[in-house]
Amino acid sequence: MRLPEGFINEMDDFFSRQNDVKREGFYESFDKEPLKGIRFSRSKIRSSDEEQRLLGQLGEDINPVSWCSGGYYTKNESSGREPLYHAGVYYPQEPSAMLPAQVMAARPGEIVLDLCAAPGGKACRLGEDMNGEGILVANEISFERSKALLRNIERSGIRGTVILNETPENIASKLPLFFDKILIDAPCSGEGMFRRDPGAVKSYMNYGPKVCVPLQESILEAADKCLKEGGSIVYSTCTFCTDEDEEQIARFIERHPEYHVKAHPEIKGVSHAGEGSVLPGSMRIWPHMSEGDGHFCVHIVKGEGKDLKSAGDYLIKDGGRHQDKNIEAALNMLEEVLSESGREGLLKGRLISHGTGLFQMTFDERLFKGLKVVKTGLYVGDIKPLKSGKKVFEPSNSIALALNRLEIRDDSYLELKRDDDRLIKYLRGETISVFPEDGLKSSGTVIAGIEDFPLGFAKINGNTAKNMYPKAWRLI
């Protein structure tokens, strides 16, 4: 690969100034094939045995990523036509990119912001760790990229989420001192992406460190305004440039001496900066020393550790039945499909109508008034008017993907095995046959899935199931 001259000069200078990282093999690593990986959903897969069984189905070896629980190296991209991908069972992700969300370690009940979230791999991991309890805000400043973020959040079945299309500054002005944790996967010169994306070299020539450094600085300042005392920031980039990495954070701490670096235990494949370095406790993944692309990550804490207030002050606690006729119609239809635990989960928080749309809200949406909201809460479905004047509820596929198998009635779940030709037909949007051995009710709405992993809705009509899988999601 022909590397930019400015990048070579920058790295030659870096290697000449320190001894912790060897130069040998670094430039040669850019000629190697980029690594691929997948990360299993922590909300859908509960054990390493299950992960390994599914890896076998995907035709992959068991080769775990050392710095990410549930992460594995793969030979293939493992998406596209793969039903497990469409069921949100795993997320295709470059192995190094799995580190920041693992370091952040979001917990149920927290208020967490992913400030630069698209396409959504890190936000999904944060949401999985939070298990639908608390408030996850996933923000993307580009509206076009926010669409991919929305799709990935929905496919992963993440609850308790709001997706914003905002600037960091606007979020800071509306939500000061609000968040417990903030993840910043900062826009950067992208040097670590050179071998993965040839376009990254061209982008580097046009938008190198001189453009990125002030942008990163402004993002960090906005994040500080959003963060509670005692809260923490995980800052990451996919560049080797110290001006965007260690020196950027060192300057931030110099401006805000209440912050300190939180060091993490040594992890195989991750280089940890020691005492005497520019930023002790920061972490890097080097492509010639590890199985991953270039990545930088550091965890900083604002002030001394304090017992932060949970999201409890903002959560909606009054579930139960609703008087709105439209909402009642939706509940009646969904209760034909849901088990007792599924009904309890649906009634957690409050069902709210926005136009014809129905959303499950577990937090007060008024918190985000004045901000550009792409989606808030779990999209349950739409109330559609008929020519007769009656109204019918059409469920959203989002809710099917947010359910687990135990939340669905046995007679309302069409389990399709991997070798069942109806599985691909369903993902294509075709009408499929049902048989007595499927154990389904004679009519009404059901949920189809691969094994125990829901995919979407269908309507039983005799011995056929009319497909309700969204047109935009179907296989071509």
Describe the model.
The chain has helices spanning 5-17, 48-57, 83-86, 99-104, 121-130, 143-156, 168-174, 198-206, 209-226, 246-255, 325-335, 340-346, 397-402, 421-428; strands at residues 36-40, 71-74, 90-92, 110-114, 134-139, 161-164, 179-185, 227-237, 259-261, 271-272, 283-285, 295-302, 350-354, 357-361, 373-376, 378-385, 391-395, 413-416, 432-433, 443-450, 453-461, 464-467. The chain is 28% helix and 24% strand. By secondary structure, the chain is of the alpha+beta class. The longest helix has 18 residues, at 209-226. Strand 5 (134-139), helix 6 and strand 6 form a beta-alpha-beta unit. The model has no long low-confidence stretch (mean pLDDT 93). The chain contains 14 helices and 22 strands. It has three domains: 5-302, 3-Layer(aba) Sandwich (Rossmann fold); 316-370 and 378-408, no CATH class; 409-476, Archaeosine Trna-guanine Transglycosylase, Chain: A, domain 4 (Roll).
Describe how the helices and strands are arranged.
Blueprint: H1 5-17, E1 36-40, H2 48-57, E2 71-74, H3 83-86, E3 90-92, H4 99-104, E4 110-114, H5 121-130, E5 134-139, H6 143-156, E6 161-164, H7 168-174, E7 179-185, H8 198-206, H9 209-226, E8 227-237, H10 246-255, E9 259-261, E10 271-272, E11 283-285, E12 295-302, H11 325-335, H12 340-346, E13 350-354, E14 357-361, E15 373-376, E16 378-385, E17 391-395, H13 397-402, E18 413-416, H14 421-428, E19 432-433, E20 443-450, E21 453-461, E22 464-467
Helix pairs in contact: 5-6, 7-9
